[in-house]
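Final report, Chapter 2: Outcomes

The project's central promise was a pipeline that accepts a single protein chain and returns its three-dimensional structure in a standardized token representation, suitable for archiving and comparison. That pipeline is now operational. To close this chapter, we reproduce one record exactly as it appears in the project archive, with the input sequence first and the structure output second.
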Amino acid sequence: MALPPSPPPEAYKPAPFKRLVTTHETAPKTGTPQEGYHEMSGQTEWQQITPDAHFSLIYTTSEGKPEMSQNSDVANHEALLDSGKLSLTHAGEDGAGSVCRAVEFAPRKSTLAGNGTESQPYMHRTQSLDYGIVVKGQIELLLPDQPPRLMNVGDVAVQRGTNHAWRNASTCEPARMIFVLLASEKVMFEGRQLGEALPDQAGRTKEVFQAKRA
């Protein structure tokens, strides 16, 4: 399957934010365990996925109960990035896993095409249970055949395997959400399996969903 064309040159670039990752280390003076910050702490990177949305990967896990001893979970996270297999969601060998990422939605006026029309919201379904928290601006949650639902800063959406899209409610101000996506079983409804639906831009996995080590 051929990859769809890349988004046009960026007209909007989100401001960076800080990621702090804690760890355990040995105190240099006493040789006893102490808390500290892992070297991956620092500024995150943004990647454009559609004309109106940028992704910034925060962290992943590959187990239902992550093993943090000896920084095993950090090693798994870095191995996943190196493998090139990270998509919108992630499930490890035991079928469990999580992805935490930030998504910045550009002001809608900055995503107008040359003919003045808006880009269409990306309607998709993932095999995951997602928590979506608005941390900046206003977001509309779109479901097929349902009116848009407006979300303000502090509002939370629990996305349970439904077909959906997100849209910035403002033409002037950016909006940002933090998502935690938990791998799930496939949804069955009235005897029908509702599988993942990731059309169009989701085919650009290696270009878009990956994140280089900080």
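Archive annotation: Residues 12 and 27 are 44 Å apart (CA to CA).
This record, like all others produced under the grant, will remain available to the consortium after the project formally closes.
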